[in-house]
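Summary for the steering committee. One of the milestones for this cycle was to obtain a three-dimensional model of the protein with adenosine monophosphate bound, which we needed before selecting residues for the alanine scan. The sequence and ligand used are listed below.
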Amino acid sequence: MNLILLGAQGSGKGTLAKNISRDFGLVQISTGDLFRESIAKKEKLGLKAKEYMNRGELVPIELTLKILNERISKPDCKKGFILDGFPRSIEQAEALKEVANIDYVINVELPYEECVARLTTRRTCPNCGDIDNMTYEGYTGNCRKCGTPLFQRDDDKPEAIKTRLEVYEKTTTPLINFYSDRLFKVSSLGTPEDTYRPVKDFLSNLGRKK
Ligand code: AMP
């Protein structure tokens, strides 16, 4: 089974993807993470992508398709995958049709103001990529998984957040109609567990029907 997760930045898409990946054995593919890994390795592609990322803009489609296709063609993806952060435009969705079938698209819904609030207080681990939030109980400023001091990503700063959410609204939300024949909607206003529960039920029931 191949899935896409749609949802604005800060909607909790990544956390949902991790839960699905763990329980359903699907590979999580985040194009944002792939770019950040490429930057960390100082690869040409990553360094080209970085300037767009820091401004909160979309990376050009040639670079994005290159990094996605390389990942998707690895053997572990044969068992199924979840795309988190791809596609982000109709153009990308059309290109995806050429390389993969998508069974379902999960749209994670969260009001704009709440996305801004969550992104502004979001902190990331530079070592393992785990994400925490300054407002969560027990927040220490260090990674819960590996203890490394957390930092604020450049694109989680106010100017870039504004651009990212504007780009999402304009370029990515048309995908909700594009995939209307295979869409499952969920609100992420509650806790990560509240968001995951209906998605887990939906995916588990699919398995039963087969
Ligand atoms: P994310 O971690 O998903 O918020 O992605 C961080 C940044 O990576 C985005 O703001 C874009 O600059 C870039 N990026 C990630 N995925 C894509 C994509 N599918 N198309 C273009 N740019 C992307």
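Key point for the committee: The pocket of adenosine monophosphate is lined by residues 9, 30-32, 35, 52-53, 56-59, 64, 85-86, 88, 92, 155, 164 (CB under 6 Å).
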